[in-house]
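Students often ask why we bother encoding 3D structure as a string. The short answer is that it lets us treat folding as translation between two languages. Here is a chain of 159 residues written in the first language.
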Amino acid sequence: MKIKTQRLNVIRQLISDHKVGSQEELLNLLEQEGYSTTQATLSRDLKALKVAKRPDIEGGYAYVLPEDNDDREDGDGGDVFPVSGLESIEFSGNMAVIKTRPGFANSIASVIDSHGPYEVLGTIAGDDTILLISKEGVSRPDVINALSLFMPGLKKKLV
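And here it is in the second language, the structure alphabet:
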């Protein structure tokens, strides 16, 4: 079974490369790429990716990806939450230590836990530090890609 992050990356690529007008069409394209999934899972994936359906020039509708959010900022000129409180992330084996601004660790860990990425076994948070434990056999880039889905700008914080 291929993991969720890989499937989400393939969905992004398919939507970028093809005019996809329906979930059924996207399911067929995913199957051609070796990913067998259900419509319900695909629907959740599209929601996680914040994919929208917009009118197409040819009169139909097509899925579109949101604009690149890595450089998105809030009105104060800082990163968007939860990255605004994140200072750094450093890996050792299947663990990562995430340093945050004081008081931010619990809320950032809660965001990670509530999204429940497949790649993350769990988190433990203090006041300004989070211990993130990834599942066995999951690579660091897979963890970073999974977290980046809901924490735009995270890659800029890697040590």
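Translate back mentally: The longest helix spans residues 4-17. Keep this in mind for the problem set.
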